[in-house]
Amino acid sequence: MLTIQPTENLTGLTVSGDYWDLDDLIHAIYEVIGEEKRYFHFEGVRQRLLTVCLKMRQASKGEHGIDYIANGISKDALKRMNAIIPEKNIYYSVNLLTPELIFSALALNDFVSLYKETVDDSEWSIAVTSIRKFQSLVANSIAAFIPEGHYMLFLTTLHTKSPLFHQYATQYVDLLNLEYLSLSKDEREEHMTSFALRFLTEDETYKVLVQQLLDVTSVSKQSLYEVELTLKYPNDESIIW
User: Residue 36 contacts by C-beta under 8 Å, 6 or more apart in sequence?
Assistant: First the structure.
C-alpha cells in the first residue's frame, strides 16, 4: 500500500510502498503527462514531474530506503497452508522535499484536466484514479501542520483556479525548496501553510523571477523552463530529514 508521511524533521515527505505501488504511480504519471511537448506550455512542469518519477523509480530498485513490513499473515495460516511463506514484505521508500512534493501533487491537476480533455474522460480511468490517490496522500500528510481554516483556503483555491501552471517558471520550486531547507523544524511547521499557498498565488518573488527569466530568454531564445539558475542544493547525505 502506498503511503506518504512527513519525515522526522519535516524536511520532506517519505513516499513508501512495495515495487508495484511505486510502479503503478510512476506509470500513471507517465500516462497523464503524455509524450514530450504534447502539452507545449506545460513542458517545464512535465520535466519536473519526470524528475520526481526518476527518484521513485530509483527507490523501487532499492537505491534509497528499504523496510520490511509485516504482511498480516498469521502463524495459524502458515500452519494450515503447511508452506514456507515470508511474514514480511519489502517496501521501498524515498524522501522528497516538502515543497517539491506539494508542487507535484498540485501540478498533476492540470495534467489530469488535459488528459480528460484530449485522451480519456472516463470516470473509470485507472491512471487518473492512481493520481487522485497520490494527491490525497500528499494533502493528508501536510493537513496536520496547517490550521483548518488555512487548509480549507488551500483546497478552495486549488479547486477554483485552473490551470495553475500554464507556462510556469518551475525554477520557483527550487527557490522554495532551498528556502524551506534553511528553516528549522519549528519554522517549517509554522510556515508550511504559506509554502503550499505560494504555489497557488504569484507572489512578488515569483514575479521578479519571471522577469529575470524573460530578460534571459529574450536574448537566448530559450523556453522559460530551460534557463538554469545558479543554485546549489546540499548533498543528500547532508540533509537531516
Answer: 43, 46
* 163: preceding bond cis by omega (within 30 degrees): yes
Match 500528510 to its residue by C-alpha cell. 141
d(CA 204, CA 236): 30
- Beta-bridged to residue 5, according to DSSP, are 14
How far is residue 19's CA from residue 103's CA, in Å, rounded to a whole number?
A: 24
43: enclosing H helix or E strand: helix 43-60
Distance, in Å, from the CA atom of 85 to the CA atom of 34, rounded to the nearest integer, reads: 40
State the Cα–Cα distance between residues 32 and 144, nearest whole angstrom.
29
Spell 179-201 as b/e; 16+ CB within 10 A means b: ebbebeeeebbeebbebbbbbee
* Residue in this structure with the C-alpha cell 481554516, named with its chain if needed: 149
CB atoms within 10 A of CB 137: 18
pLDDT tier at 78, thresholds 50, 70, 90: low
pLDDT in tens, 121-139: 998 999 999 999 999 999 9
